C-alpha cells in the first residue's frame, strides 16, 4: 500500500507533514521515532480510521488494524473464538465470495492456530493478557483474509516474550505475502524489520 504527502493537524498544530509511505507485499516495516512523533497518527491514517488533511492513501487489499489498547466490556462476555469470528463478518473485499458458517469455522480455527491461541479458543476474551488480546486482533485480520496488517505496538505493557511472539507471527504473515507495518519502540523489532520509517516531529527523517 502507498501513502503520499500525508499531513495531519491536531487543533491546528501539525502532527504529520508531507509523509510518504510504501508498504510492499512480503515485508515488515517498522515505524519508529520518539514519543509524539506521529507514529500512531500515521498508522490510523493508513488504516483509514483518520483522514489526512492532505495527501492520498492507496490500499490495494483488506486492512487489519491492531490497536494499542483493547477494552473488553464486562457486559458483553465473548469467548476468544467469538471475537475472531467477528473478523469474518462483512468479509470479504470481494462481495462475490460468499462465506458460509463452515468456512467461517475453518477460518477461525486456522487463524487461532496461526497466532498460537487454539488452546484458549473457548476462554473469555476479558481474561486474556494484553499480548494475547493483541494476537486475537491479529487473528481477526487473518480470519478476514486481510493482506495489510497495521499494528500500534504499545510502548509499555508487553513483555519481551510477548513482543517476540507477535514479531514471529508478523514475519510469518509477511512470508505469506502480506504487507505489515508496526509501530515499534524496541530496537530488536526495528532491527528485525525489512525496512524502517523514522518520524520526528511529524516529519519523515528516514
Ligand atoms: N486526540 C488528540 N488531540 C490533540 N493532540 C493529539 C491527539 N492525539 C495525539 N495528539 C498529538 O499528536 C502528536 C502525535 O501523536 P501520536 O500519538 O501520533 O505520536 P506517537 O509517535 O504515536 O507517540 P507515542 O510514541 O507516544 O505513542 C503528539 O504531539 C500528540 O500530543
UniProtKB/TrEMBL annotation:
The reply to whether ATP-binding figures as a keyword in the UniProt entry is yes
Name used for this protein in its record: ABC transporter ATP-binding protein
Q: Which PANTHER family match?
A: IRON TRANSPORT SYSTEM ATP-BINDING PROTEIN HI_0361-RELATED (PTHR42734:SF5), METAL TRANSPORT SYSTEM ATP-BINDING PROTEIN TM_0124-RELATED (PTHR42734)
Record organism: Arthrobacter alpinus
**Origin superkingdom:** Bacteria
Which molecular-function annotation in GO is an example for this chain?
ATP hydrolysis activity
Q: What does the UniProt keyword field contain?
A: ATP-binding, Nucleotide-binding, Transport
- Domain (ABC transporter) ranges: 1-205
Amino acid at each position: 500500500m502507498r501513502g503520499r504527502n500525508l499531513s495531519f493537524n491536531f487543533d491546528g498544530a501539525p502532527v504529520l507533514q508531507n509523509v510518504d509511505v510504501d508498504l510492499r507485499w512480503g515485508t515488515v516495516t517498522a515505524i519508529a521515532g520518539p514519543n509524539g512523533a506521529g507514529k500512531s497518527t500515521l498508522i490510523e491514517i493508513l488504516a483509514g480510521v483518520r483522514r489526512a488533511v492532505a495527501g492520498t492513501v492507496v490500499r490495494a487489499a483488506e486492512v487489519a488494524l491492531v490497536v494499542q489498547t483493547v477494552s473488553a466490556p464486562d457486559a458483553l462476555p465473548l469467548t476468544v473464538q467469538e471475537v475472531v469470528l467477528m473478523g469474518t463478518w462483512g468479509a470479504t473485499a470481494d462481495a462475490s465470495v460468499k462465506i458460509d458458517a463452515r468456512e467461517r469455522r475453518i477460518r477461525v480455527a486456522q487463524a487461532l492456530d496461526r497466532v498460537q491461541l487454539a488452546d484458549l479458543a473457548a476462554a473469555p476474551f476479558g481474561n486474556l493478557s494484553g499480548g494475547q488480546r493483541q494476537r486475537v486482533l491479529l487473528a481477526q485480520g487473518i480470519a478476514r483474509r486481510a493482506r495489510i496488517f497495521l499494528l500500534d505496538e504499545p510502548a509499555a505493557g508487553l513483555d519481551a516474550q510477548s513482543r517476540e511472539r507477535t514479531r514471529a507471527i508478523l514475519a510469518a504473515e509477511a512470508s505469506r505475502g502480506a504487507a505489515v507495518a508496526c509501530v515499534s519502540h524496541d530496537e530488536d523489532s526495528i532491527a528485525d524489520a525489512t525496512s524502517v520509517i523514522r518520524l520526528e516531529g511529524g516529519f519523515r527523517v528516514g
